[in-house]
């Protein structure tokens, strides 16, 4: 939302709408004193760091929407989502790092905002920082843990989330497997879905669709942000001054931000980011250790991996990309990652070298081919007219992912074949279609870029 907002303000100013309208956007933002009396802060690095916090506030949501989107119950006044959004110095890249809400954290000494009681530094889950000390303690805790200086604070609750998505006209979310969560009411079939604000909120809140719990939810939140960026930069909203004004007034009128988040900052950043796109964004979660820690009276917490997390935050401070360099191409979405699928390729035609070509193309898109393609006996006399994927029914999901990479192929069930799937290349073979799994992570920090996680 920060990215979409800054880009939009720049377009509005360039369109000659006038300084008065731009200034009115500034006055519409609700302010919080997130940096009050902060001392011994980390040194400033290159680029800009925004702490994006999602809370469970729902005071202005109608009773009908509360029931429809399963938003009943009392809010805990804590943070559901904590992300560091790093905007590069050249304004060509946004790096988003999710901090699990159950992360083990050392909260600095503070005065409890509810009871007024003074607390010494003590361990807790990171999302408790907001409940005990609001935005100020949240910023202090994140800076203490990451050694990354936070430049701005932006807070979104359930109400502002729904309004922002709706005023943009909704977002498009796709999934390669069914997603169902009885707690939030989420129920998505395989495929692409146009979501309004309430439906998108169900999507990003769901924790019980699989065994990944909060980590899976963070991945869905990252995919949502990529979809939001894609919608804001491709829908024409940023180029329509009147529509932009409506979007921006809605967005800024329903969030809370630090006092330094002003019009001039938005204009300067927005002018530099006119060419921003989903491929300019990258998403990851702070690396975790294999074992967490149990805190008495609090429960299990997630421990950050000391070396990997330190390296990640050092990259943010030094304004370096987190994702490895890659050649971008259009990938079809599949349920099982090709890196998990072992394949034997056979040449079912008399065409010399076809088996080696199919093997190489499948390996290039990630499949674990044997590298030893064989020739089907008598194929030159009776070539296979159609490419076949032979599979053991116990590995049917893997077979469907492999078949997606071979458009038009025939799927042939072979009981007892085992875990290695077989491809018999036929005369109809043209090329392997690149595929990827929606949760496939890349590089040292497990990063995905925005164009990898939006709908293909």
UniProtKB/TrEMBL annotation:
InterPro entries, sorted: LytR/CpsA/Psr_C, LytR/CpsA/Psr_CW_biosynth, LytR_CpsA_psr
Chain ranges of the Cell envelope-related transcriptional attenuator domain: 79-233
A Pfam family: LytR_C
LytR/CpsA/Psr regulator C-terminal domain location: 340-429
Family note: Belongs to the LytR/CpsA/Psr (LCP) family.
Listed name of the protein: LytR family transcriptional regulator
Species for this entry: Streptomyces anatolicus
């Amino acid at each position: 939302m920060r990215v979409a907002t800054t880009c939009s303000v720049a377009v509005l100013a360039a369109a000659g709408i006038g300084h008065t309208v731009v200034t009115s956007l500034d006055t519409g933002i609700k302010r919080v004193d997130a940096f009050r009396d902060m001392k011994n802060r980390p040194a400033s690095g290159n680029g800009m760091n925004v702490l994006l916090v999602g809370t469970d506030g729902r005071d202005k949501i109608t009773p009908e929407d509360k029931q429809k989107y399963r938003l009943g119950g009392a809010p805990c006044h804590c943070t559901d989502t904590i992300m560091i959004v790093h905007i590069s110095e050249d304004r060509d890249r946004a790096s988003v790092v999710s901090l699990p809400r159950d992360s083990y954290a050392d909260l600095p000494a503070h005065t409890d905002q509810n009871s007024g009681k003074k607390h010494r530094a003590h361990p807790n889950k990171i999302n408790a920082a907001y409940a005990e000390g609001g935005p100020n303690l949240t910023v202090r805790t994140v800076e203490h843990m990451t050694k990354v200086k936070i430049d701005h604070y932006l807070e979104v609750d359930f109400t502002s989330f729904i309004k922002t998505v709706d005023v943009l006209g909704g977002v498009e979310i796709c999934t390669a497997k069914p997603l169902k969560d009885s707690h939030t009411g989420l129920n998505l079939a395989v495929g692409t879905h146009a979501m309004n604000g309430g439906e998108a909120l169900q999507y990003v809140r769901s924790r019980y669709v699989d065994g990944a719990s909060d980590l899976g939810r963070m991945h869905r939140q990252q995919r949502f942000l990529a979809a939001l960026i894609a919608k804001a930069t491709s829908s024409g909203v940023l180029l329509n001054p009147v529509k932009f004004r409506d979007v921006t007034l809605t967005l800024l009128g329903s969030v809370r931000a630090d006092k330094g988040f002003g019009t001039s900052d938005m204009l300067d950043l927005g002018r530099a980011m006119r060419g921003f796109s989903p491929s300019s964004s990258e998403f990851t979660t702070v690396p975790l250790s294999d074992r967490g820690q149990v805190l008495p009276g609090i429960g299990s917490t997630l421990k950050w991996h000391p070396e990997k997390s330190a390296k990640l935050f050092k990259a943010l401070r030094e304004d370096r990309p987190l994702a490895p360099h890659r050649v971008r191409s259009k990938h079809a979405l599949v349920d099982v990652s090709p890196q998990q699928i072992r394949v034997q390729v056979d040449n079912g035609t008399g065409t010399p070298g076809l088996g080696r070509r199919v093997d190489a193309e499948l390996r290039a898109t990630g499949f674990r081919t044997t590298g030893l393609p064989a020739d089907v006996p008598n194929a030159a006399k009776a070539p296979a007219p159609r490419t076949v994927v032979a599979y053991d029914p116990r590995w049917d999901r893997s077979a469907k992912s492999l078949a997606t990479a071979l458009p038009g192929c025939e799927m042939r069930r072979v009981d007892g074949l085992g875990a290695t799937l077989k491809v018999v290349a036929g005369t109809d073979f043209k090329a392997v279609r690149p595929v990827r799994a929606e949760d496939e992570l890349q590089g040292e920090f497990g990063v995905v870029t925005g164009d990898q996680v939006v709908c293909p």
